[in-house]
Design brief:
single chain; 133 residues; alpha/beta; 45% helix; 19% strand
Length: 133
């Protein structure tokens, strides 16, 4: 049976989290939802192996999604990290790039663009960590 890619979806707006969960489950992903940065960090620190993390930038604090990204980037192997935001600025965009976030997307999110980008990013990550299959 082929590997079902896993993704952690983090947003404090429950309707956004649930919508993304339904979209990615329909695309064949195993989705773990989190409704705060603290919940996401707890999941990441519990040893879950994930292919991707999609996090909102501004939740209970401004730019707190960068903390989720930092913790995710510290995992071995690191998952693909995507930050979604309606409030990107030069400062937080630069910080995201400096921590090697894989993709930064603006809200409202174009679902087709996000699913396509995530598929490509996961495939590239798997290729670079495991080599051609």
């Amino acid at each position: 049976m082929p590997h079902k890619p896993s993704v952690l979806v983090v947003d404090d707006e429950e309707n956004i989290t649930r919508t993304l969960q339904m979209v990615f489950e329909r695309e064949g992903y195993e989705v773990t939802p989190a409704y705060s940065s603290a919940e996401a960090v707890k999941i990441l620190e519990n040893g879950h192996t994930l292919d991707a993390v999609i996090t909102d930038l501004n939740m209970e604090q401004e730019d707190i999604g960068l903390e989720v990204a930092r913790v995710a980037r510290g995992l071995k192997p690191p998952p693909v990290v995507v930050i979604c935001t309606g409030f990107a600025n030069l400062k937080n965009s630069r910080r995201a790039l400096e921590m090697h976030v894989d993709y930064l997307v603006s809200k409202p999110v174009d679902i087709e663009e996000l699913t396509s980008a995530l598929r490509r990013l996961i495939a590239r990550r798997q290729y670079t960590t495991k080599g051609p299959r």
